[in-house]
Amino acid sequence: MKKGLHWFRKDLRVQDNRSLKSISNTVDSLSCVYVISSLTQIEKSKVPLQQTELIGEHKQRFVKQSLVDLDSSLKHFGQGLCVLAIASKEETSNDGIINILIEYIDKHDITHVSCEWHAGVNERHQWALLQQLRPELTYIQANSATLYEEDDLPFSVSDMPDTFSPFRRKVEKHSRVAESIRLNKLPPPIVAETEQQKLTGLQEISLIESSLESEYSWLQGGETSALSALIYYFWESDNIASYKETRNGLDGRDFSSKLSLWLAHGCISPRQIAAELRNYESQRTKNDSTYWLFFELLWREFFHWQLFKHQARFFYFNGIQDKALDTTHDPSTYLSWVNGNTGFHIVDACMKQLKRTGFMSNRGRQLVASCFVHELAQDWRYGAAYFEYQLIDFDVASNYGNWQYLAGVGSDPRGHRQFNLEKQTEIYDPSRWFIKRWLLQDPRLREDELN
Fold it and tell me: Which of 227, 350, 389, 445 has the most CB atoms at less than 10 Å from its CB?
């Protein structure tokens, strides 16, 4: 009997999951496993490269919603999700995660293990460590996390361009987006449902009740919510048709797709989005805005392959350029930025929005990162680590790639991106509506000071 284990990490979906489908076609029975950590508090001294992802309450809530939804999807195939919980903070390292997996593997005589490919340093280390400790098992790993397969890139990853534009031109000309795939069946579970409920922490996961304003009610994790968001933005609202004109908004649901929320946790794949985009362009309209969404997917693609290429250098102070920086880490300055007390109103409003909701617009991220590095002269890695903690849609490649870019040590050929915060405010919040919304709650400020 071939007994399989699929290890869910950043692939919290059933559809377009190549590793899950591959092991399903190979084994006689299957366990679907997720390892959850109790680490929820940021440590001010921590900067990358830490061994596990920093998880704030907003992201934690989103992940738990995604796990409940994944379990529901698996039940349609006669399966279920087993959540292995790590209770001790000291055990939330790569070794701790692998140890709890090995304990499960040994207990249930697993013969095959699958896991989705991921470009990250820790993810690759975990996978290699598991293979090293249990070499007798059969391992299955496939990629549905990027638009393109590695073999379909028009260059080797080691020789890929380190700036976006030549990367984009080459892949658009020579590469083809991989097809998304459907899953129609799964093998029966290895563990009986009654025993699985004892093993899994799923029924004990109490979803954190959201106290967010009702307009943020769409911040719901899961594959079901991801597909609903895709249908809404494309077909129900047609907002995709004006994306290029609205994408620099600061607040609200409709100015951008918000698909990064679900992409970050693998509730939807980039290939599924690209396929739906092609469908929309063939049936509704094809214009600069529909292309621009694909353009943004290409930016994500670029950073994922950059991370795969540069690995730990993605987290170094001097970046992939190995460039000296005249910045430092001052705890009091860092905390003023974190708490939205810098005195730069547009930055403070964005930071308060992030802390309250776990969300910040792309435009806002550029402004607060530019302020952190240039106006405040702070070590960019601390800003990136705080984003990792607070952002629901934290994506390790995009997050650290963009922070290096703004700090001038990454993939930016210009090497220095500093935004004029007053000018940016006039362009993107001329009426000060956004600033007033988030800063008037501060008793130290009066409305006339925000105009």
Answer: 350
Kind plus residue range of the DSSP H or E element containing 114:
strand 112-116
Q: What total of structural domains would you count in the chain?
A: 3
The whole domain housing 288 covers 157-177+224-312
Tokens of 86: 């790590």
Q: Answer whether residue 208 shows pLDDT above 50.
A: no
In angstroms, the CA 182 to CA 102 distance is 29
In a domain, 128, yes or no: yes
Q: What is the model's pLDDT at position 207?
A: 43
| Predicted structure pTM score | 0.92
Whether residues 74 and 129 fall in one domain: yes
* CA 67 remoteness from chain centre: 15
Does residue 96 have a pLDDT over 60?
yes
Q: Over the stretch 212-233, which tens digit does the pLDDT of each residue have?
A: 555 677 789 999 999 999 999 9
Is the domain of 171 the same as that of 46?
no
Domain boundary among 284, 312, 340: 312
Assess whether 124 and 100 both reside in one domain.
Answer: yes
Measured CA distances, 211 to 356, 391, 421 (Å): 9, 17, 31
Task: Please say if the pLDDT value at position 19 is more than 60.
Answer: yes
**Residue 318 belongs to some domain of the structure:** no
Place of tokens 């009066």: 446
Q: Which two tokens stand for residue 196?
A: 């699985």
SS (H, E, C) 164-233: HHHHHHHHHHHCCCCCCCCCCCCCCECCCHHHHHHHCCHHHCCCCCCCCCHHHCCCCCCHHHHHHHHHHH
Backbone angles phi, psi at 86, to 5 degrees: -100, 115
102 with 173, same domain: the answer is no
Whether residue 120 lies inside any domain: the answer is: yes
